[in-house]
Amino acid sequence: MLFTNKDIAQIFLNLADMLEIQGENKFKFLAYRRAGEALADLPRDLKAYASDGTLEDIPGVGKAIADKIRELLTTGRLEFYEKWQAEVPLSLLDIMRINGVGPKKARLFREAAGIITLAQLEAAARAGQLRDLPGMGAKSEQKILEGIAALARQTGRMPLGKARPAAEAVLDRLRALPRVQAAAIAGSIRRGRVTIGDVDLLVASDTPTPIMAEFVTMPGVARVLGHGDTKSSVELQIGLQMDLRVLPVSQWGTALQYFTGSKNHNVKLRQIALDKGYSLNESALSPVDASGTILEDAPKIYCDSEEQVYATLGLPWIPPELREDEGEIELARAGQLPQLITVGDIQGDLHMHTTWSDGMLSVKEMALQAKQRGRSYIVITDHSRSLGIAGGLSIERLLAQQAEVRQVNADLNGEIIVLHGTEMDIKADATLDYPDDILAQLDFVIASLHVSLNQPRDQITRRLLAAIHNPHVDLIGHPTARYLPEREAVDMDFEAVFTAAAQTGIALEINSNPRRLDLEGPYARRAIELGIPLAINTDAHNPGMMDDLPYGVLTARRGRVEARHVINTWPYEQFSAWVRARGT
Ligand code: DGT
Ligand code: CA
Ligand code: CA
Ligand code: ZN
Asked: Would 377 disulfide with which of 160, 197, 309, 348, CB 3.0-4.6 Å?
């Protein structure tokens, strides 16, 4: 049995739930949960860490957890997990996916009513058998049924590119109301996660009532899940849950910090606060005594900015994209936070399509659109000949296109520099779609996977290595080829691919299309650690897609990427010298 990192992560997350249901020591189950979250995000195979002997360098992985990972990798089993499954069936964990049902309720349903599956719970609720259980009632029974229905409607987490515009639209609406002093998106959207569970909105105002009233009645609301003066929740017709909190502007800093998360980052900040004699929550820093009890008479510290929250804890402000408790607090404390890249750093766009293949605009129109958005150079990279469905270019058409690009470039007279390239397919048999003598005539060559994405790991890896080792190829486009939500990343040997990329000096792409965001943050971080150059491109097929650039930059920031790591932040001369040095 072969385990992916995500499989192993899930085992630890399940263990955390199992231990919590059984009322085990909090430190134990939190440790498993923390490890599970860390493992799901790792840029390398756990096998590689195991063979390096570096499992315990992973944040959240100590000796006990490392032993369990090794047991899984070597035997394909984990005795400890099997023992726990005998105590807490996996089907019971499903019950905790219902909104409002945590480990205590799951345990209650099982112990008092023998319920261990969602179906049994639904049947019991319909039969009115839950309302008499301790702490339950007719109303909470109804909530369970609603929760089960909501679960069935849920298609899982929503891509950032869909959730963020929806959140911004609501925020704009709320900002326009009277007496709104501040408004922001918090939660996973602010941190730039690729998929979003629910939207967390914050508004600072001294008049919450009309703001909440607008929120629960605005167009697009399918259901009101809660309506109060400090917190309301709605479910939108597009299947997205939104929470809104309204608070006094004097507490803006603590609230924004708290609701931005992540939870793990906050847990660590709270510990730092305690060490300094404060209890930190969403409204204030409250002085505590040695036992951690809040001193009611001592004055609280209210923070109207996040900077003040971090400063009170002796830290510089930490960019939201880094707040995952993956070492960022230690970096902040040491004064070593990276100078994260910003959208304004991007000068060129190295990947875009025109009507020559499957794009919407001509070469000249794309150039003008890019210029309008402040780009100073672009590369036209249409699809290559074998990609028939996308109108891939034969060699003759590729050369004809080159003549057009040269003409447009001359016409634009330096207003924006337009280069000629290709997004060449890496074919299923690991050959490239154009011969070397043709590639040598192009200004810039991207190679990408588009077909036969379900091939086994060996063959996918072989294809990528073939492209990386071709001296004419400058960039691997969207390296894992994932396409949210329907297509997962290809199965590849990251270690081999990244090692080869580091050796040949080829660049890897962070594709800004919100359905791709590929490479994702943890991989981008690994790439720069190995000295691999990156490029953040839009892959625009129409002018609107050029506006996706912020998603790519957000993803890069999650990977701790700085402008200097990204070849299209460089001025044209520097970029062009880099390409020439690669021998294209
Ligand atoms: P999501 O919604 O799954 O994409 O992820 P988040 O991070 O937006 O999580 P969410 O919506 O549950 O909570 C928003 C933030 O609020 C979270 O990042 C940190 C904070 N928060 C929520 N619940 C807790 C909690 O129980 N403890 C702590 N420390 N923070 C919490
Ligand atoms: Ca959220
Ligand atoms: Ca939330
Ligand atoms: Zn493309």
From this structure: 348
Q: If you take atom 30 of ligand 1, which residue's CA is the nearest one?
A: 263
Check pLDDT > 90 for residue 94. Answer: no
List all residues whose CB is within 6 A of at least one atom of ligand 1.
187-188, 193, 196-198, 200, 258-259, 261-263, 266-267
Interval 327-379: pLDDT, tens: 999 999 999 999 999 999 999 999 999 999 999 999 999 999 999 999 999 99
| Res. 1 pLDDT band, cuts 50 70 90 | very low
For ligand 1, atom 5, the nearest C-alpha belongs to 188
The span from the CA of 234 to the CA of 241, in Å, is 6
- Token output for 113: 């009513």
Which residues have C-beta within 8 Å of that of residue 262, sequence separation ≥ 6?
Answer: 188, 191, 323, 324, 325
Q: Which ligand gives the minimal distance to the CA of 357?
A: 4
pLDDT of residue 421: 98
Distance 549 CA to ligand 4 centre (A): 14
CA 108 to CA 95: how far, in whole Å?
A: 12
Instruction: Look up the CATH number of domain 5-152.
Output: 1.10.150.110
Ligand 3 centroid to Cα of residue 568, in Å, is: 36
Distance (Å) from CA 540 to ligand 4 centroid:
7
Q: Which ligand is nearest to the CA of 282?
A: 1
For residue 265, give the ligand 1 atom closest to its CA: 29
Identify whether the C-beta of residue 521 lies closer than 8 Å to the C-beta of residue 552.
no
| Chosen CATH of 343-582 out of 3.30.565.10, 3.20.20.140, 3.30.1330.10, 3.90.1600.10 | 3.20.20.140
pLDDT in tens, 237-264: 888 999 999 999 999 999 999 999 999 9
pLDDT per residue as tens digits for the range 274-297 = 999 999 999 999 999 988 899 999
